[in-house]
Amino acid sequence: MGPSDEDLCARIAERDSQAFDLIVERHQARAYRLACSILGNEADARDVSQDAFLRLYEAAHTFDRRARFSTWFYRILVNLCIDHQRRNRWWRKVVPLAGPDDDPDAIQIDPPSSEPAPLEKVLLQQSVEQLNRALGGLSAHQRTAVLLQAQQGFTSKEIAAVLNCSENTARVHLHRAITHLRKVLKDE
Amino acid sequence: MWSAHHPETALLPYLNGELSVEESARLRAHLKDCARCQEELAAAETVIQQVARRVEQIPEPDWTAYNYQLRRKLNARRSEPVRRWRPGLVWASAAATAAVAASAIVLALTLAPRPRPAMVAVDQLEVEGELADANIGLLRAYPVVENMDLLENYDVIKNLDQLAPPSRPHVVSRS
Q: Is the pTM of this model over 0.80?
């Protein structure tokens, strides 16, 4: 068992690159998946989760250990996701998404395969799309609340801290999200 | 709190063990007699599990590429000039802005055309009249002064013959 996230964060505040790499390694998959579930877009999830790690690097000295590191970090990530959604809501309608070809320095990520996808992968993709559709019907706060609960196992209090609302409001977000998801997933 | 209503928002916290001992006991008692809440509780648990399972199924990106991009962004941020919040600088800027604004207001008030009251024109006429009637010796002798000036010029003209030869054209003798 390695150092705690809180200790790593203190070392990042002192510009310890190894500590930063370690915390990225620990949280990148969950951060990416959470961003992907909120944003419903892999490219955006990649950018926004990377931005969250950059913010973590820059703001590590402000983490005062009053909350758990994960609550603090996922608050940064969720705020970036919600902000990204808000900014791009109308912009996306006007300007199409930039492709990897637009950036000469960009490296190819997940290049499309010419081979037919295996059945398992197709089913997986359908499952993810079904979830995205179901989550798409929720408000940003409801979606975040249910994802933090399901993925991170956050308590209502921690969800409230991430969403900057009261614990009761967080519980209401959760209840409404579950009621909606229950209905949509049952129908499909 | 829950006696009159179904404790819908407390079901998930109950599952997660977030409720106090008293709250949990009350919820358990309610669940015994409420089929609707029993169903809600089971459904909530199922939905959360479904969401968790599906989130785990989201395909992961190429982490090598991801980390390479992240490192590149971090290096780019590091090379940017540091922009620190300096309260002293902010106060100085605010004071300078206030000073400029105050100067602009004073200038505007000073230079703005003011409506002149009718009395000013009358006074001016009176002043001009008084000047015209004034016994100002210099003004009365103005033609004399003018002639004296001419005489002076005449004096110069009269001595033109005595000017220096062309090799020294600038020198004018006044004697």
A: no
